From TrEMBL:
Span of domain DUF112: 20-438
Pfam families assigned to the protein according to its UniProt record, in alphabetical order: TctA
Domain of life: Bacteria
PANTHER family referenced in this protein's UniProt entry, alphabetically: TRICARBOXYLIC TRANSPORT PROTEIN
Keywords carried by this UniProt record: Membrane, Transmembrane, Transmembrane helix
InterPro entries: DUF112_TM (IPR002823)
Protein name, as recorded: Tripartite tricarboxylate transporter permease
Transmembrane parts of this sequence: 20-49, 109-135, 147-163, 170-186, 206-224, 315-336, 356-377, 389-407, 413-442, 463-486
Length: 500
């Protein structure tokens, strides 16, 4: 009951006219900046950090929270409409959202994403209020073997359900893992696949890889087929979700938070793994198997709800342990520190008004996000009416701007277009793009956690399976790998034998 009393006090703080205005500005800025490929919410918060020096701490952090959620939805907008993820958490939205947009259902995909963000964020924030101390205490006990096992699960689960061939899926994953090796070994400092370039010593930024494989690869693919296919304007369609759409999306909206929030609360977690797992879960549970890959609305609703709830989960470890699990959380931690505030176990006691005002502003920001962006869905979807030569030229321009903004180096542009050519080749040979993205995002982290676990066990391989959680996850991995074979055997036995 103390939590709810404190939350009511937080609403009294967050509902002042000044803080409401600051939250609205944050949501609008976050959405606008999130639309630009490569310039996600983390960069937006970092750029606005000096601007907030004149604001009081509560107003500054409320603005950052609005930018966080707005940026996530902005990234999903271009991911759905243009197959150009604004940030890594929006990668999964492109898989089903972009085919929906091409079928004239862009507004429905955007509405499913907006409501998913709202539902996931509201449920995630409620869980933040109720479970922050408990989740934080459990997260501290999760070790390197557990992290590695969960990442292996993400590799296997997503790669197994994408594409027509498992071999091509694993080949795509291998490409991503190879790109993830570029740079300095974090544990030994040894340069790997840098070819003598100091710039590559920092590795290839995931934003460049995602934008290259999706946006540039898609643009090259469209350009290659432009002469062979008529250039028809894609219809915008109805602006709201129908009864059939609501019947298919309400369960993914509610399932997403219970996948995303725990992963967000785990130190070194984030929204990438749970959005991938949410996609796999919804595909397994869907009754519309034939629509997956062609525009299944569940594939937008579930991952977007998961991503939003994961954002609430990241605040658990940031506020209670002082551990940022995402780039945005790291910048917000810097914002706390610039005001002389140190997040940790005593933060809720020492800065109660600020913390609960921030948590209350999350609810307000989510309502503002829905109110502002839901009516805008048809407007955003009209981007698809632009003739394809101009549309994809614009995509290439903004992709180049986003890539250059990452590091300010011309080499980043060359890497972007080299990866774009790779994305074109992958489409040509029927290889799914998502496993490559997973490999780049999770590969370095999985390697680090594996080596850390082996160091703790003095090189003994049993160190990878020395916890109940790791064993449980590996059992799930084994079931996923064995399921197709078991299904074939059961199918063969069930077939009636024809007498000779």
């Amino acid at each position: 009951m103390d939590s709810f009393a404190n939350l009511l006090d937080g609403f009294a703080t967050a509902l002042t006219p000044t803080n409401l205005l600051v939250a609205a500005i944050g949501v609008v800025l976050g959405t606008a900046i999130g639309v630009l490929p490569g310039i996600g919410p983390a960069m937006a918060v970092a750029l606005l950090l000096p601007v907030t020096y004149g604001l009081d701490p509560t107003a500054a952090l409320i603005m950052f929270a609005g930018i966080y959620y707005g940026g996530m939805f902005g990234g999903s907008t271009t991911s759905i409409l243009l197959n150009t993820p604004g940030e890594t958490t929006a990668v999964v939205a492109a898989i089903e959202g972009n085919p929906m947009a091409k079928r004239g259902r862009g507004p429905q995909a955007l509405a499913a994403a907006a409501i998913g963000h709202f539902a996931g964020g509201i449920i995630g924030t409620i869980l933040l209020v109720l479970l922050a101390p408990l989740v934080a205490s459990l997260a501290v006990d999760i070790g390197a073997p557990d992290y590695f096992a969960v990442m292996v699960l993400a590799f296997i689960a997503v790669t197994s359900v994408l594409g027509k061939s498992r071999i091509r899926g694993y080949a795509s994953l291998l490409i991503g893992l190879t790109i993830g090796l570029v740079g300095l070994d974090q544990m030994t400092g040894q340069a790997r696949l840098t070819f003598g370039s100091l710039h590559l010593a920092e590795g290839v930024d995931i934003v460049i890889v995602a934008v290259g494989l999706f946006a540039v690869g898609e643009s090259l693919w469209v350009a290659a087929h432009l002469r062979h296919t008529p250039d028809k304007a894609i219809p915008v369609g109805r602006p709201w979700l129908g009864k059939a759409d609501l019947a298919r999306t309400w369960k993914p909206w509610l399932r997403g938070p219970f996948i995303g929030f725990p992963f967000g609360a785990i130190p070194a977690g984030g929204a990438e793994i749970p959005t991938f797992l949410s996609y796999v879960t919804e595909k397994r549970l869907s009754r519309h198997k034939d629509e997956w890959g062609k525009g299944a609305i569940e594939g937008v609703a579930g991952p977007e709800s998961t991503a939003s709830s994961s954002a609430a989960g990241t605040l658990v470890t940031m506020l209670t342990l002082g551990l940022p699990t995402t780039a945005v959380a790291a910048v917000m931690l810097a914002a706390f520190q610039q005001y002389g505030i140190q997040p940790g176990p005593l933060l809720f006691e020492r800065e109660s008004a600020l913390v609960w005002g921030l948590i209350a502003s999350l609810f307000i920001g989510l309502v503002l996000l829905l109110v502002i962006n839901l009516p805008m869905a048809p407007v955003w979807a009209k981007l698809l009416r632009i003739p394809r030569p101009y549309l994809y030229a614009g995509i290439l321009f903004f992709a180049g701007v986003g890539a250059y903004a990452v590091g300010g180096q011309v080499l980043d542009l060359l890497i972007l277009f080299a990866i774009g050519v790779l994305g074109f080749a992958m489409r040509r040979f029927g290889m799914p793009v998502l496993p490559a993205i997973i490999g780049v995002i999770l590969g370095p982290a999985a390697e680090q956690q594996m080596r850390r676990a082996l160091q703790i066990s003095d090189g003994d391989l049993t160190g990878l399976v020395n916890s109940p959680m790791a064993v449980t996850v590996y059992v799930v991995v084994a079931l996923i790998l064995a399921w197709p074979l078991v299904r074939k055997l059961v199918k063969r036995r069930a077939e009636p034998r024809v007498p000779v």
